[in-house]
Write a structure and sequence with these properties.
Elements: E1 40-44, H1 54-58, E2 65-70, E3 76-80, E4 105-109, E5 146-155, E6 158-169, E7 175-185, E8 193-200, E9 211-217, E10 220-226, E11 232-239, E12 251-253, E13 258-259, E14 269-281, E15 286-293, E16 296-302, E17 313-316, E18 324-329, E19 337-344, E20 349-357, E21 363-364, E22 389-390, E23 394-398, E24 408-414, E25 418-426, E26 432-441, E27 448-453, E28 459-465, E29 472-479, E30 485-493, E31 499-510
Antiparallel strand pairs: 1-20, 2-3, 3-4, 5-6, 6-7, 7-8, 9-10, 10-11, 11-12, 11-14, 12-13, 14-15, 15-16, 16-17, 18-19, 19-20, 20-21, 22-25, 23-24, 24-31, 25-30, 26-29, 26-31, 27-28, 27-30
Length: about 500
């Protein structure tokens, strides 16, 4: 991945994204970024072309993170980090003086069917109708640059939001915090009060609870933390839900027992880790911890919050989603189907992702399509051995503002005949599959198709479309029948003039 640009004077700087997502140096090995990505994209949650229309409804044109928790009253609250409005042009975070920079915003959702996306229904708003900043910040580098949400939990009718006060951003993967704090709301997130409960950082920037994640199990809230930046290890504490604001009530895991002293806390997962999300999964009876480690989002599992924790499983690889970070569980994930919010730098927005685990907490049923987001190179092949094939004029566009995710997408374009992209994929005979992908076309397109066919060209299942303006998701369910391999494809007839089609984030999983 490329280094992040330094901001020009007078430019608002985004949060965790601007701090960089390059592999960290000197603190343990970063995971290989050529690992396959087993998870799939459900939808874009925020920004242009997002079904939620966060830009038009609340002036959330660009944002990141997406920390989710159950408000205890039938809704999910989702807190985003540094957020920019109409003046944002991208790629990446930050905007000019008219970018309507807010350090944090929040939306609400009662949508329980996440298979087709997550509907946002409301947001705390300013009198002008835009999503309002919840926890104020000075926006002065070297003093307090921003305040970024890292965790949320409900206790009775009260909402608690953990956040970090960022003093300044540094080189990629490094930033300094003043403290980690807790804000609370008694009106379902509409208004927030910053409490006096803080974990002050030390002069060396090594306090292990500067970025926190909450998970409730039994009679305790477990608080997982890392230092500022992306080089630290994971530590854990616990507290009674009724005493969230009582710093003296916290107990820290010292390797043998729960200690009153924060100084006794020892790592439960080695560095590097950052931007934690922890979920207790009833299906596997395990704690699931998602984190950015090096350049990839990974997941660890454990039966107890103090561990022992398993080694990392790659959830999403930066080879497929360059500039990825975050990874925040949706708390209503169930029955082994897990949903989470993932951020990307170039689109500087968030995506709802899906993965599946078994009873042991192992990721299963991965995406069978290789290079699903077209990010692993700029050339095409013949459609075999994990490559994409296509009918000329065709190829891979590198245009970050135009792609659905990341920096690249596939295209075909011509003025006569059938033009398509394809890939041969191994499947199990007699098995039900679901194919998904995101497509858009020129306005004069009148005969587009997305689907699966046999290697000799017989259609097994397909969706038909005409003109597709914004990026649109198509879903095709089919049974593989006698086939041991299929060819997934997206194409368009170009007999009506100069016609083009673009495709991105294609996935094939078992139903």
């Amino acid at each position: 991945m490329r280094p992040r640009r330094r901001a020009a004077a007078g430019t608002a700087i985004t949060g965790l994204a601007m701090a960089g997502v390059l592999a960290v140096g000197g603190v343990g090995p970063a995971l290989a970024t050529d690992a396959p990505t087993p998870v799939t994209v459900v939808e874009k949650l925020t920004g242009p072309d997002a079904p939620n229309n966060t830009w038009g409804r609340w002036d959330i044109k660009a944002t990141d993170l997406g920390v989710m928790w159950d408000d205890g009253d039938g809704r999910i609250l989702t807190a985003f980090g540094d957020t920019f409005g109409n003046g944002w042009v991208g790629p990446g975070g930050g905007s000019g003086p008219n970018g309507n920079w807010r350090s944090n915003v929040l939306v609400r959702s009662s949508d329980r069917d996440l298979s087709d996306g997550m509907l946002f229904e409301s947001a705390p708003q300013s009198p002008h109708g835009i999503a309002k900043e919840l926890i104020p910040s000075k926006k002065v580098s070297g003093d307090e640059m921003t305040t970024i949400p890292t965790a949320g939990i409900s206790v009775g009718d009260r909402q608690y939001m953990g956040f970090m006060s960022v003093r300044q951003w540094g080189e990629p993967g490094y930033w300094d915090t003043n403290y980690a704090g807790i804000a609370y709301s008694d009106d379902d997130g509409e208004n927030w009060t910053v409490s006096s409960t803080k974990w002050e950082n030390d002069a060396e920037g090594t306090n292990p609870f500067q970025m926190q994640a909450y998970v409730r199990k039994g009679g305790d809230v477990y608080v997982f933390g890392t230092p500022n930046g992306r080089q630290g290890a994971v530590h854990v504490a616990k507290v009674s839900p009724r005493k969230m604001l009582d710093k003296g009530a916290y107990r820290y895991w010292d390797g043998r027992r729960w200690s009153k002293s924060e100084a006794d806390a020892v790592p439960v997962i080695d560095a590097p880790a950052s931007e934690l999300s922890v979920h207790y999964d009833e299906f596997s009876k395990r704690f699931l911890l998602m984190t950015l480690s090096g350049e990839d989002i990974v997941m660890h599992t454990a039966k107890k919050p103090e561990g022992p924790w398993t080694g990392p499983q790659v959830v999403a690889s930066s080879a497929d989603y360059p500039g990825l970070y975050g990874g925040y569980f949706h708390p209503w994930s169930a029955d082994g189907v897990m949903y989470f919010a993932m951020s990307q730098w170039s689109p500087y927005n968030t995506y709802l992702m899906r993965m599946q685990i078994d009873r042991d907490g192992v990721i299963v049923n991965p995406n069978l399509v290789a290079n699903p987001s077209f990010e692993r190179g700029t050339t095409v092949g013949d459609g075999t051995n994990g490559t994409w094939g296509c009918t000329p004029n065709c190829g891979i566009d590198t245009a970050p503002p135009e792609s659905f995710s990341g920096d690249r997408n596939a295209f075909v374009r011509f003025n006569s005949g059938w033009r398509n992209i394809w890939q041969d994929v191994d499947v199990q005979p007699g098995t039900d599959y679901r194919l998904t992908g995101f497509v858009r076309t020129s306005i004069n397109s009148d005969a587009g198709f997305f689907g699966a066919r046999s290697l000799d060209g017989q259609v097994i299942g397909e969706a038909h479309f005409i003109s597709v303006g914004p990026w649109t998701k198509f879903t095709v369910d089919f049974n593989s029948g006698a086939h041991e391999d299929v060819q997934v494809f997206a194409g368009v007839w170009t007999n009506g003039g100069d016609i083009w089609l673009q495709a991105d984030d294609i996935a094939l999983i078992r139903r």
